[in-house]
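Q: Fold this one first, please.
A: Sequence and structure below.
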Amino acid sequence: MTVETTTAGILFLIAVMTAVTLVTRFGGAFVMSFVKINPRIESFINTMASSVLVAIIVPMAVTGDAGALAALITTAVTMLVLRKPLPAIAAGIAAAGIVRYLA
């Protein structure tokens, strides 16, 4: 399937992506409304979030450029020192920007 890159085609793609996002978000909440949350399931959900984060970070650490590595290291160190995610994310973005600007 191909979609023309006209204004109507772009708006169509945005509408489809919006619908898919809403269906997956509401669908997940709907399905989970039938599941009784016990400590085992809660542990699974918490572990799943960590594994998704690791699945995103590891390939970037292995194949990323100098900016990506600077962002990862800066974010990790800032998070360990401050224990606040927003400053750590900001520091990582700044580090990536600076390294990529200078390279």
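Q: Good. Now the second chain.
A: Here it is, same layout.
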Amino acid sequence: MSVLIVNKENFDSVKNSSKPVLLDFYADWCGPCRMVSPIVEEIAEENPQYLIGKINVDKEPELAQRFRVLSIPTLTVIKNGEIKRQTTGARPKTDILALLQDQ
């Protein structure tokens, strides 16, 4: 499954997904975000049991504000509409998977 680009219009359906959701808050100009992006895409391809989405904070500032994103990249895990985990900064694949596997 590929990464879903999340915006205000489709956010409610993403938030209410029956699958655990990983959201990657990023910006195109952010170096660490560019390091995390291929890892997030790889996780999406290898793990269809999760819904993986990306939110561009420059294009969706309301969503970034709603999740209190102060630094990017920020990775947020949602399950049953609730934030379960949130971490900032570039992370290796094993750490990102660990965020999801506890859900």
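Q: Anything worth noting on the second one?
A: The longest helix spans residues 31-46.
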